[in-house]
Amino acid sequence: MQAMVLSIIGADKLGLVDEVASAVAKADGNWLRSSFCHLSGHFAGFVEIMLPKENHSSLVRDCHALSNLQITLLPANEATSTNTKRIRIKVTGNDRKGIVSDVTSALTRFDLNIVELDTKCESAPNWGNLLFSANIVVETSENIDTTKLRAAIEGIADDLMVDLKEK
């Protein structure tokens, strides 16, 4: 058995996750964890599975037959560090062009690895413009000064609110 990551993208349709799950089961794979989303009519996701090496080709073939999906099957990266900590960051403020780039640049300056990033824009009630929000999980091996990190993100714009929590 080998840990593998299956990436999937294609037009969304009813029953798509069930079809992928059936293909994984048919290939004698064990579904460990997954992350999926629906964006602008498309389905995208990742599945971590344990799969016998001899069944890799059949899983790829069966997934390609599903709804014109674009798929990739890669070996999982087993290297994990025990000396890391994770910090959950929530950022909220008025949306504007370049906000994701500004936030990720601030995180890079602190040598943080982004392991999860979920962003969205929603209509702000009674404001008439879009409200940007990001839920971010970062990983660091250093003792980071979260006060300085918060100040760096809040310094991007006057209206940004930042909440930090160690995981």
Helical region count?
A: 4
Question: What is the overall silhouette?
Answer: flat
Give the terminus-to-terminus CA distance.
31 Å
Question: Any idea what the CATH architecture of the largest domain is?
Answer: 2-Layer Sandwich
Rounded average pLDDT = 89
CATH topology of the largest domain: Alpha-Beta Plaits
* Structural class assignment: alpha+beta
CATH class of the largest domain: Alpha Beta
Q: Could you describe the largest sheet, including whether it forms a barrel?
A: 4 strands, antiparallel
H/E element sequence = EHEEHEEHEEHE
Domain count: 2
How big is the Rg? 19 Å
Strand content: 35-45%
- Name of the CATH homologous superfamily of the largest domain: ACT domain
Largest beta sheet: strand ordering: 2-3-1-4
Task: Give the gist of this structure.
Residues 88-167 form the ACT domain. The chain has 167 residues and is of the alpha+beta class.
If you had to describe this structure to a student in words, what would you say it looks like?
The chain is of the alpha+beta class. 24% of the residues lie in helices and 44% in strands. The chain is built from 4 helices and 8 strands, in the order E-H-E-E-H-E-E-H-E-E-H-E. A hairpin with a 6-residue loop joins strand 6 and strand 7. The protein is flat. The model has no long low-confidence stretch (mean pLDDT 89).
